[in-house]
Amino acid sequence: MAEDVAACEVAHSDAPVETGDRTLVAVFASPVSRYLLRYGRDLGYRTLLVEPDPQRAAQVGDTGADVVGKVTGIGGDTDVIVTDHHRPELGPMLRDVLAHQVRWVGVLGNPRHPAPHVAALRELGVEDDAIGEVHRPIGLNIGSRRPPEIAIAALAGLLADRNGRPGGFEF
Fold first, then answer.
1. Helical H runs in the chain?
2. How far apart are CA 14 and CA 153, in angstroms?
3. Least crowded by CB within 10 Å, which of 11, 71, 112, 126?
4. In the prediction, which pLDDT does 63 show?
5. Could you give the CA distance from residue 133 to residue 99 in angstroms, rounded to a whole number?
6. How many CB atoms lie within 10 A of CB 40?
């Protein structure tokens, strides 16, 4: 009963949501990363954009995220989403992410198309066990087509995973 009261208080904004020290990293500036970072901040994440190209980083706009050119300063409280699987830096960026102990890592992409991160990581000598830690597709299967919808689906999937839930409408 006390748990129900606490949940109700949170839903009505009467109690703070415990967020801890979570970090959300969006790798590569993209329309989706803009929404991931903005919404992630609203969800209590410390947000970080990793973008090696300063001009592309500037195109994301003001999301409140820290912006860095390479993967650094991440750990076990970190969820990483690679938002562009067509970039030539895909392999090196993912290799650098996998060198850290992150909570979760995934790459956006259509499950009906080959996963380019697998070949990119193999070319760099990354072990298959490490490659297997990269999730693809990611997020809840809600038919997302536009950047804000894709960001919501991805973040909802992360929240479900973090909370030990399957996602969707099964309770």
1. 2-11, 31-42, 54-59, 90-98, 116-123, 128-131, 147-162
2. 26
3. 112
4. 85
5. 12
6. 28
pLDDT score at 166: 86
Q: Using CA atoms, how far apart are residues 170 and 147, in angstroms rounded to an integer?
A: 25
Handedness of CA 99, 164, 149, 145 (dihedral sign): positive
Taking the C-alpha atoms of 114, 117, 121 and 124 in order, what is their torsion angle to the nearest 10 degrees? 100
User: What pLDDT shows up at residue 10?
Assistant: 59
β-pair partners for 118:
none
DSSP state at residue 29: -
Closest CA to 83 of 165, 159, 24: 24
pLDDT value for 9? 66
**71 and 94 Cβ atoms separated by less than 8 Å:** no
Fill in the amino acid letter for 29: A
Burial 65-97 (b: 16+ CB within 10 A, else e): bebeeebeebeeebbbbbbbbebebbbbbbbbb
Amino acid code (one letter) for 122: R
Per run of 10 residues, the mean pLDDT along the chain (length 171 residues) is: 63 60 94 95 93 90 88 91 94 96 93 89 96 92 92 94 81 55
Total length of the chain: 171
